[in-house]
Amino acid sequence: VAEALKVHTGTMERVTEFRAMQALSRAWHREGKRIAFVPTMGALHDGHAALLREGARRGDALVLSVFVNPTQFNRAEDYHAYPRRLERDLQVAEAAGVRCVFTPDAGQLYPPGHQTWITPGPLADRLCGPFRPGHFRGVCTAMSALFNAVQPDVAVFGEKQYQQLLIVRRMVKDLHIPVEIAAHPIVRDADGLALSSRNERLGPADRAAALTVPRGLEAARQLYLSGERRARALWSAVTRTIGAAPARPGGGPSIRLEYCHVCDPETLVDVDRVEGPTLIAVAAHAGSVRLIDNMILGR
Ligand code: AMP
């Protein structure tokens, strides 16, 4: 990291104003540069670093945004509790070769009198939709504003938030936003848990419970590899594994399943049988942390 920092020292800019970001992007485009963009809420981990490497590969000028978007949180407490570590994020960004970190504040992204929203269609009603009303509307509204600031040629999203990736892809098609949406596979810790900025709020017992999520997905994958094609059987493998999590030290369940869907990876509609590529998506709560994870079979 120190070596990489040295190489990139002095080349990274931090921009907080929309107009300044637009001016920088216009200048880069005039120079013929291809702008790659990785939007995040900060508290960067190795998953974000992998997205940045993918962005660096796909463009000449790499932009990272760090914006904790208030309108995509369902509870004010979660918004306030979201980890914020900008100084460290700036170091990670610089080491990854980021040319510009865009850090608008909420008052800028939502200017005084703001009243225009982007409401996604049925894709947003599935999976997380019923449990997080308005979440994807907040995501789409903020993301379109960020796209208008950064004017990227390509934007890289993780498959961790698979539903978000699909909805953003649909949005840029529907609104003719000239950006290519690239996907990066989920990055996991050595124990299998998908990396998330929220994982730092998991105590050891919560983490042990959380691990049943990737194990459940893996159990379903093994069944699939052994020839099982009934969605119900794969669903059972996931939910039974999560249901068998060790009890909390004080007794009671240590993890609560919110949903498990075996569905079409394009429409998110549940399937009865695995006939082509199939998404298994899970959301669960361990301690105070909401976990999401997924796996695509047959692609
Ligand atoms: P966030 O963590 O909400 O700031 O997400 C910013 C971007 O990073 C999104 O495109 C996420 O899908 C992606 N991301 C977050 N965690 C992971 C992970 N473990 N693996 C791959 N991508 C991730």
What does this structure look like?
The chain is an alpha/beta fold and 299 residues long. Helix content is 39%, strand content 18%. The protein contains 11 helices and 9 strands. The protein has a 6-stranded parallel beta sheet, sandwiched between helices. Strands 7-8-9 form a 3-stranded antiparallel beta sheet. Helix 7 (135-150) crosses helix 8 (162-174) and helix 10 (212-225) packs antiparallel against helix 11 (231-243). The model is unreliable at 1-9 (pLDDT under 50). Bound molecules: adenosine monophosphate. The site of adenosine monophosphate (AMP) has 16 residues, from helix 3 and strand 5.
Q: Can you give me a brief rundown of this structure?
A:
By secondary structure, this protein is of the alpha/beta class.
What Rg is obtained from the alpha carbons, in whole angstroms?
Answer: 20 Å
Q: How many angstroms separate the termini?
A: 35 Å
The H/E string reads HEHEHEHHEHHEHEHHHEEE
Oligomeric state of shown chains: single chain
Structural class: alpha/beta
Q: Which hetero ligands occur in this complex?
A: adenosine monophosphate
**How would you write the strand order of the largest sheet?**
1-4-3-2-5-6
Tally of helical segments = 11
**In this structure, how is the largest beta sheet organized?**
6 strands, parallel
Query: Helix coverage percent of residues?
Result: 25-40%
The portion of residues forming beta strands comes to 15-25%
